[in-house]
Amino acid sequence: MLGLTALGLAILVAWDSATPADNSPPTMIALAILGDSSSHSYQDSLSFPPGSADRGGVFHARTFQWTEALARLRGHELNPGPWVRWGRADQIAWLRDLIGLHAGRTPRKEDYLYNFANSGATCRNLMGGPLQRHSQAPRLVELMDHDPGRWRNGVVVIRIGNNDWSALLDDQARDPRAPRVRAAAAYCAEQIAAAIRLIHAAHPKTRILLVGTDNEVNEPAIDKRYPAAAIANIQTAFDDFNAQLRELASTDARIAFFDLGAWFEGLWGRRAPDGTAAFKTVTIGGKLRVTNTVGDEPTNAELADHHGGLVWNALWAQSLVMRLREAFDLPLTPISDEEVARFVTTQ
């Protein structure tokens, strides 16, 4: 029995133990991501195999998520790590955690090394806990500890909460300050604060950008589900939650907030007071007209599976660079409108 136990431990230690190396210049600004499907790379062929209806459908090969757009437009300045197939099954990661070994990223996916976001993640996946699947922040910090010098000028983007929030949409519509709504907001804020403390305890100079949640009021067909009063309630709940994130960011110069709702309104506008759609059209390069509609063609802001489309993500990458410059004085080259136009029209 002892021999079998020892053999099992030896296999566990050896199982998928190699952490991919990052051979990029240390002068590049390291960029890590904690989050959900909003930040899980679309070209992950393990999660979204060719021919899948997800993440662009027939346009999948030319549909990129924001980290993929950013790597293509500013990959010489921002470093999300090499593109790798890496990670461990939940059971193996849990067992390695149990005996004090580096667990690595879970689940296994094809993505940038420092991207720990995974589809379906909720705020409980940030810190995890006993028997918790996909705990992101502790495993990212383990990886950061391998090369701490790289993170003295690094950035961690935390963009999570959409799955917690969208699950309570009916509650928000009835009462934006209902106990379940307030509890979910408080829990997410607590988990995000805990992740920040964990990162800064090990890497005190690392900057952290908190991204607000997607505003469900901007969903193209939400007015077919809810009357104007309910839509106003959802907006109030959204504002309350983002106020908590904004307050959290204001406590420390190493933390900044990205207002995703304001970003969307600056491009596509907002609903009319009666809740009906009154969105604008965004024109790219003088030719490509992008509306706040759903579909896999690049003329839609959202994909058919309701994730951000190619133009959405390219424009968000452009704004993210500007926010990192403004908030942390990072030496990043702004992404011009012309670059965005070339990127989205030549894919």
UniProtKB/TrEMBL annotation:
Pfam families per record: Lipase_GDSL
Alphabetical list of InterPro entries matching this protein: GDSL, SGNH_hydro_sf
Protein name from the UniProt record: SGNH hydrolase-type esterase domain-containing protein
GO molecular function: hydrolase activity, acting on ester bonds
